[in-house]
Amino acid sequence: MMTAPIQSSAGPPVRGNIYLVGLMGAGKTSVGRLLAKRVRKNFADSDHEIESRTGVRIPVIFEIEGEAGFRRREAIVIRELVGQDDLVLATGGGVVLDPENRRLLRTTGTVVYLRAAPTELWFRTRHDRNRPLLRTANPLARLEQLHRERDPLYRETAHLIIDTGNQAIRTLVGRLERELRARAAPEPETPIASFFSPAGPSL
Question: Which residues contact 1 (CB under 8 A, 6 or more apart)?
């Protein structure tokens, strides 16, 4: 059965790179893939790029090099990816821990924070074994801690904040696309008549 074509919203084109940030489970990869199709840009996932380069999964990198080693690799990948054009980039949840990453993302594209409550994130990630930071006796408590630590950094970096909730992915992406196109729209010109007083003494 043929899949219906994806319809893009009418409006100004979305120019430049788009970077998605947020905690694990926020939907950055799923949202990013669909958004890239709708706005006709390339898609990349920084975690997937790291795995492709190293040939191993992220938990293995954490086991061998620790989180510090992973963050060094992540910084290198981010620095290279932001140099591309017309990119939608899904970033890892901890990308904002590095001030230079925050600066690069903020200054080279539009940063979107996909925000979700820790309980919702736990529900989405509870069966995912590829989350080394959640390999703990109480993953919900860990997510709550990460949210407290990282939410201010996401907010500092983001140009847009989108609450994901339990929306269908297409609904969420459609909403995000409209927000991005609205940002790209030029400011309306002030009508000439508004420069003059509507009533006053004649000369």
Answer: none
Can you tell me the distance from the alpha carbon of 2 to that of 61, in angstroms, rounded to the nearest whole number?
40
From the list 81, 19, 26, 22, the residue with the least C-alpha distance to 50 is 81
> Whole-angstrom Cα distance, residue 174 to residue 171?
5
Chain-centre distance of CA 6, in angstroms? 20
Burial class (CB in 10 A: 0-12, 13-18, 19+), 95: buried
The 10s digit of each residue's pLDDT in 57-109 is 999 999 999 999 999 999 999 999 999 999 999 999 999 999 999 999 999 99
Evaluate if pTM is beyond 0.70.
Answer: yes
How far apart are the C-alpha atoms of 125 and 136, rounded to whole Å?
13
